[in-house]
Amino acid sequence: MLEPESLVIYGFALAIPAVYLTYRHFYVPSRATPQPASEPTRKPLKSIMQAPREDLAPPKDDPYTTEELKQYNGSNRNLPIYVAIKGTIFDVSHKSDVYGPGRSYSIFAGKDGSKGLGMSSLKPEHAIADYSGLDEKDRKVLDDWHSFFSKRYNIVGKVVDPPTSSL
Ligand code: HEM
Ligand SMILES: *[C@@H]1O[C@H](CO)[C@@H](O)[C@H](O)[C@H]1NC(C)=O
């Protein structure tokens, strides 16, 4: 049996990476407090993530099956790269350096990997559409990703055969 002290330590050990990942991926510095001119060298900490876009096209509602979505995984250079989150399909082609074959987040290309996004996991077995097992905290992370993508990528359609348990 674990001592209560060990549980606290384990709790922190698990919480620190989770907080760190959320911080690195979603922290956006505030521009509300301008720096005094006497300190010109102090630059605000910048987000590691790409900025939102102003030039997004109106969202499309084209239907795709999970099977059809697979061909948009970046392996066919004549096709765009798609990532689906909670059934919404985003065109991530302009970030092929991240989602292309062999790149850091290729695991999410050509599919709906909602569960893995919610869990902050890159494991293949987690990159599935059925996020019904996620707790409230992970669902919030997943919703943050959905809104992150909505501000940066064009919506090209929706997945028409999502797993029934995630509806
Ligand atoms: C210590 C671990 C990690 C570090 C240092 C890290 C760092 C980064 C960096 C630097 C980017 C920006 C890439 C770019 O725009 O070119 C990024 C994007 C991203 N990260 Fe992580 N990451 C980590 C772990 C994870 C994990 C575990 C996930 C799982 C959900 C994840 C999901 C993503 C996604 C989906 C993007 C792409 C966002 C976009 O489309 O612009 N990251 N990460
Ligand atoms: C992408 O999908 C094609 C079939 O649609 C498959 O042959 C290929 O192995 C997949 N590539 C990756 C990197 O998953």
From TrEMBL:
Q: Which GO terms describe its cellular component?
A: endoplasmic reticulum; membrane
Q: Where is this region: Disordered?
A: 32-64
Membrane spanning residue stretches: 6-23
Its keywords, alphabetically, are: Membrane, Transmembrane, Transmembrane helix
The cross-references to InterPro entries, in alphabetical order and at most eight, read: Cyt_B5-like_heme/steroid-bd, Cyt_B5-like_heme/steroid_sf, MAPR/NEUFC/NENF-like
Q: Which residues form the Cytochrome b5 heme-binding domain?
A: 64-160
- What SMART domains is this protein classified in? Cyt-b5 (SM01117)
Official protein name in the record: Cytochrome b5 heme-binding domain-containing protein
The protein's organism comes out as Tricholomella constricta
